[in-house]
Amino acid sequence: MSHPVVADLVQLLQLERIEDNLYRGQSRDIGTKFVFGGQVMGQALAAAQATVDAARHVHSLHAYFLRPGDIEAPIVYSVDRTRDGRSFSTRRVTAIQHGQPICVFASSFHIEEDGVEHQITMPQVPAPEDLEPIAVPTPDVLDKLPPMMQRWLSRQLPFEVRPVYPRDDLKPPKRPPYQQVWFRLVDRVDDAPLLHRALLAYASDFHLLGTTTLPHGISYYHPDVQMASIDHAMWFHRPFRVDDWLLYALDSPTAQGARGLARGSIHTRDGHLVASTAQEGMIRVIGEEH
């Protein structure tokens, strides 16, 4: 692992143990106004995993975002060892900043068992090698944008992203509420499945809420648009590596009442469904109706 951005992300997900069931994580400014929700989920999962027997693997997680996270402050994660049964373990985690909960998180862990198996088919899309990475705006375009947006658009990502249907988020067209995106970590990392699950939880927060904006020709970058994640759910199905190409197939079945719902399926390039996601977010458009 030689890429500094990847090394920093891996370090971000390695929490400091303060006391039994109590952990502390640092925050990163990636150009968003508040702490990135994927960071909170990845760290909360890391805290929960640290209290569970290694033979039990996370199969589902659910998070509610209660308050915006402060980029300048660390986050304390308090783990409640809710239950350890014969086959399943449940953990509840509260993420705390400045004495207030910013996220409540629940996860379930399961021993490996044999059972019936089926899955949906991966969408037929071009291979990642046949697609272009997301284009970075030219310097003259960046200079006209607010500083926070400049940081977001010019940041060096730990993930390489190749959308099947690229769009200009600064001038987005209206289109149907679905998209497919290839992504992978830009460097190889340790084989530990715990690390890959935490990294996928982090990455799963990208693109979900944005899918709900596609039919309306709006985006996070518009000054009259307010967007924030309300909750996030994730299910892990099969083994995977985040440093190999994964396809994120997303759709948004509905938006209403200043909220939008998006769903995602994550596949390996050979078609295995490895995870599913769902997220509801707040979407407010100030002034003009869309």
Describe this structure in words.
The protein has 290 residues and is α+β, with helices and mostly antiparallel strands. 17% of the residues lie in helices and 38% in strands. The protein has 6 helices and 12 strands. A 12-stranded antiparallel β-sheet has the order 1-2-4-5-6-3-9-12-11-10-8-7. Helix 2 (37-49) runs antiparallel to helix 5. The chain is globular, with a radius of gyration of 19 Å. The N and C termini lie far apart (45 Å). The mean pLDDT is 93.
Keywords for this structure?
38% strand; globular; 6 helices; alpha+beta; 12 strands; 17% helix; single chain; 290 residues; twelve-stranded antiparallel β-sheet
Compact summary:
The protein has helices spanning 4-12, 37-49, 139-142, 147-154, 193-203, 208-211; strands spanning 16-19, 22-25, 56-65, 75-84, 88-97, 100-111, 159-163, 178-185, 225-236, 246-256, 259-268, 273-285. It is α+β, with helices and mostly antiparallel strands.
N-C termini distance: 45 Å
- Given helix and strand content, the structural type is alpha+beta
Rg over CA atoms, rounded to whole Å, is 19 Å
Main sheet, how many strands, which sense, barrel? 12 strands, antiparallel
Average pLDDT: 93
Portion in strands: 35-45%
Number of DSSP strand runs: 12
Parts with pLDDT < 50 across at least 5 consecutive residues? none
Strand order of the largest sheet: 1-2-4-5-6-3-9-12-11-10-8-7
